[in-house]
Amino acid sequence: MLKIPCTQKIDHMSASNPPAARCKDGDTVIFETMDCYDGAVTCEGIRDWEGNKQGKYMANPATGPLFVEGAMPGDALAVEILDIQTRGWGAMGTGFGENAFINYDGEYEMRAFNYEDGFVKIGGKQIPVDHMIGVIGVAPAGEPVPTVTPDSHGGNMDCNRIVVGSKILFPVAAEGGLLAMGDLHALMGDGEVFEYGLETSGEVTVRVSVVKNAMKELAIKQPTLYQGGRVMTVASGKTYDDAVRLALEAMYEYLLAHGWDKVEAGMLMSMKCDLAICQIVDPQITVRAMLDENLI
């Protein structure tokens, strides 16, 4: 089985990135990933600040990219998450003075948490871990996009529904798709409100396949996620309003592509479509719109 080591990493998603590996449509591939700190944090929660200032580390590195034979602009790249294995500890910094915590002062602090027994212990509580992928996507159309930024190509969406058993379709803008991923979390709530999830590294096993003409025939214009019996359109924008509108437009177009009447599609969405915030702390806000798959 093909395995891409974490030394093959990028900090921008771009059509100009040379492939780290190539595979065939339908192949299974393992991505070995670094954490969002690129290894600058130890299991004691200590960060190599001096090295970081000298540009020693990448911000939110993603392993790849992977060139998938047969993937062309206008297609979608389907990525099935078969397995996620991580190390036994994760780390988090603090978010005082930022975003939702802009009105709260506090020193920046880094803490590490052990979860080898499958639980994170904090504040006297034990919380089961729930591994997810923070950064995953393909090469965007146009200019390179930093891996810290989410958009229609995917990227740093921080959607906690991208877990084992899920499948996500990405609109292909460059030949081969150029799939990359990283920024694993052992645990993260919707919003990632204090700047970080429980950041970790590990290995992700995926199956990749090409869905021909999906952008036209299935209206795959934003990352489209299938998990837990629901279909979700995931979109990012500069504001909450932008992200919500893009996610809802993507779901509406998806319904129309599946034969729904334009009036009843909108009515169905008001009856059954749920909205959730994925993250509020990246350069763009990410939102998902969700419908039960059996309604499509």
What does this protein look like?
The longest helix is centred in the last third of the chain and has 18 residues. Helices cover 13% and strands 38% of the residues. Helix 3 crosses helix 4. The chain is globular, with a radius of gyration of 19 Å. The protein is built from four helices and 22 strands. It is mainly β. A nine-stranded mixed β-sheet has the order 1-5-18-7-15-19-20-22-21. Strands 2, 4, 6, 12, 14, 16 and 17 form a seven-stranded mixed β-sheet that branches.
Radius of gyration over C-alpha positions, nearest whole angstrom: 19 Å
How would you sum up the global shape?
Answer: globular
Mean pLDDT: 96
Q: Could you estimate the helical fraction of the residues in percent? A: 10-25%
Low-confidence residue ranges: none
Straight-line N-to-C gap: 35 Å
Helices, by number, come to: 4
Strand content: 35-45%
SSE run? EEEEEHEEEEEEEEEEEEEHEEHHEE
Q: How are the strands of the biggest sheet laid out side by side?
A: 1-5-18-7-15-19-20-22-21
> Structural class of the secondary structure composition?
mainly beta
Number of strands: 22
Which sheet architecture does the biggest sheet show?
A: 9 strands, mixed
